[in-house]
Amino acid sequence: MPLNQAFIGREFAASTPFLVGREHIRQFARAIGDPNPLYHDLEAARTAGYPDLVAPPTFLVAAIPGELGLPIGDPAFGMDFSLIVHGEQRFSLSRPVVAGDELTAVTTLTGLRTVATNEVLTAGYDFRATTGEPVATGLCGLISRGTADPTAGPVRVEVPAPAAPGEPESAPRASTVRYDEVEIGAELPAGSFRLRRADLVRYAGTSGDFNPIHWNEKVAAEVGLPGVIAHGMLTMATAGRVVTDWAGDPGAICEYGVKFSSPVVVPNDDTGALVEVRGTVEKKLDGNRVVVNLVVRCDGNKVLMAARATARLA
């Protein structure tokens, strides 16, 4: 069943703000395997100049109500969430999210197009504090597998996405890397991260993404996947650790975006899947910002494409 084009342009928001809690930040950090003390240790975060624990850059996905803010419960929309896989995700942050923030997240369905038998839905997100302060924007591309109407011609419907937030803060509080000492082409320390089924369960719980393709072998097979796959956002968060580890301060990240090119299949054994990440400084921008290009592979396959993070250094 094709998605309902009439929903493009509509906005959806939770009735109450999302309160960012310390334990939620700690749980999210544990789910992505990140021991950075700014996520876990209140004293370390305050020593670094933050008012409370800092959230990982991709934590914003947890602040989006329901299933990525989509009207899944409305039968008129026509979405089967088990057929959905992530195609693209981007976040632009004007400041880091910290414990104690109260955030509103407005989801706007910004586009729908057909690619062969699939439909590609795009959604934009506007995150603000309850004071009205812009905190971040996001863009999400989702692939609805096999739901395009084979008798219809190509479909493309679009509306404007939310505007990007204001300029990021002037400098990260705890970055250990100086902008003047970084050269274009510099390689970041590589990272290797193993994902097991237990990690998928932990991530589902802390992110709120309980799509059965991430834990149920039967459902994954029924929708044509090669097995249970990792959440795209877990892969994205895992890869981002190479940049935050290098910068020394997760609050240095002001933009991060990826395209999901191949799923990370996680076998039901003690070995799991090995995600290997390499990062290279691609550009130096004004305002002490650098763009890092990430190459992310699993079993020799490139699982993320156009993976880039912009970090503001000391």
Q: Can you offer a commentary on this structure?
A:
Residues 194-284 form the MaoC-like domain. InterPro entries: FAS1-like_DH_region (IPR039569), Fatty_acid_synthase (IPR003965), HotDog_dom_sf (IPR029069), MaoC-like_dom (IPR002539). It comes from Pseudofrankia inefficax (strain DSM 45817 / CECT 9037 / DDB 130130 / EuI1c) (Frankia inefficax). Belongs to the enoyl-CoA hydratase/isomerase family. It holds the Pfam family FAS1_DH_region. This protein has 314 residues and is of the alpha+beta class. It has one domain (5-312): Hotdog Thioesterase (Thiol Ester Dehydrase, Chain A, Roll). It has 6 helices and 12 strands. The chain has helices at residues 22-31, 37-40, 42-47, 197-207, 217-222, 232-247, and strands at residues 11-13, 18-19, 84-93, 102-115, 118-129, 134-144, 156-158, 191-195, 253-260, 273-285, 289-298, 301-312. Strands 1, 2, 3, 4, 5, 6, 7, 8, 9, 10, 11 and 12 form a 12-stranded antiparallel beta sheet that branches. The protein is globular. The relative contact order is 0.17. The mean pLDDT is 93.
What are the salient characteristics of this protein?
314 residues; alpha+beta; Thiol Ester Dehydrase, Chain A; twelve-stranded antiparallel β-sheet; 6 helices; 17% helix; globular
